[in-house]
Amino acid sequence: MKLHRIIATLTIGAAVAAPLSAQAETFPSRPVTLVIPFAAGGPTDLLGRVLAQSMGASLGQTVVVENRAGAGGTLASNFVARANKDGYTVLLHHIGMSTAPGLYRKLPYNPLADFEYLGQVADVPMTVIGRPDLPAKSPQELLSYLKQQGNKVNLAHAGLGAASQLCGMLLQQAVGAESTTVPFQGTAPALTALIGGQVDVMCDQTMQTVPHIRAGKVKLYGVTTRDRLKPLADAPTMREAGLKDFEVVVWHGLYAPKGTPPAALATLNKALRAALKDPALIGKLDEVGVQVVKESLQTPEALRTQLSSEIDRWGALIRQAGTYAD
Question: So which domain of life are we looking at (predicted)?
């Protein structure tokens, strides 16, 4: 009897262990959800959808994009931080992941403690643009206009924590004059207001602005990168315009909940690396000036280093500006 019980126990144990082992070996066995912390149609959403398609091909599973907009990206970040630790929920977030600790007094998660890091993804340049009938005709004239008009200038942004807000903060600091900032619930309504002449100036990512610039719907004054951009080759950098240290690039990273199994993380990182070599993805992003990061940055370690450094950088600027949210 005892021998039969031992055999039965071993058989049951093997039956339980086998599916678990098979499940670990076949990750992913169902669709993966890519959470985007901003509204559909915005720059991060556009990047996420291109990335999801390429990663899905590598994983052999559909990567479903889920938009969870609100509170400058913190709602989505908190959702992913609390999600199941199985590799099936990941987060694509931009520079806002590093500014949230400075902007929010009561952040419900810790960017450095509550996530696993999969790797950096892409750098998106920004443009400084104005309403079609803005008097300034050149970047230099725009800087003079901002200084002279001060708070008479309406500077639009896509909401607290948005890249457009951060770029606008830097622009005001660099010029040495405070504009009247006008927040919107997303990039699309802010751009609509700029095109319609309801606001004067705005910073935003090339993924969103290049089509409007090419169509002549907004005035382009400069790009925020160190070097000129291929899709906007005639546009000077803001450094060329006289702002010596002005440089803003919206970096993006891929995250999973803390405690996600190493095997799943390795599979996801492998799929990320494969996606960032996909000629179709590179071609789509190149059209709007988006640069896939070099291979050495497509690692968990590189993303963690970037995030930690940027938290320090933006925290100091935000404290200086006195911009907070409860």
Answer: Bacteria
Q: Do domains 30-123+250-321 and 125-232 have the same CATH topology?
A: yes
Q: Is the peptide bond before 28 cis (omega within 30 degrees of 0)?
A: yes
Nearest-angstrom CA–CA distance, 118 and 60: 18
- As a whole number of angstroms, the distance between CA 34 and CA 141 comes to 43
Q: How many CB atoms lie within 10 A of CB 258?
A: 14
H/E stretch holding 122: strand 115-130
The 3-state DSSP class for residue 211 equals helix
Q: Is 250 helix (H, G, I), strand (E, B) or coil?
A: strand
Domain over 30-123+250-321 is classified CATH 2.60.260.20 = no
In the three-class reduction of DSSP (H, G, I as helix; E, B as strand; rest coil), residue 91 is classed as strand
Question: In 10 A of CB 295, how many CB atoms?
Answer: 12
Q: Find out if CATH 3.40.190.10 is the number for domain 125-232.
A: yes
Angle between helices 300-321 and 96-103 (to 10 degrees): 40
Give pTM, 2 decimals: 0.85
- Give the angle 209-321-113 at the CA atoms, nearest 5°: 80
User: Closest by alpha carbon to 112, among 67, 75, 160, 77?
Assistant: 77
Q: Is 313 exposed, middle or buried (0-12, 13-18, 19+ CB in 10 A)?
A: middle
Phi, psi (rounded to 5 degrees) for 233? -60, -30
Structure tokens at 152: 């008479």
Which residue type, as a one-letter code, is found at position 11? T
Would you list the domain boundaries of the chain? Answer: 30-123+250-321, 125-232
Query: By CB neighbour count within 10 A (0-12 exposed, 13-18 middle, 19+ buried), where does 119 fall?
Result: buried
Model pLDDT for residues 99-154, shown as the tens digit of each residue: 999 999 899 999 999 999 999 999 999 999 999 999 999 999 999 999 999 999 99
Phi-psi region of 70 (alpha: psi -120 to 50; beta: other; left: phi over 0): left
Helices marked H in 104-200: 139-149, 163-175, 187-195
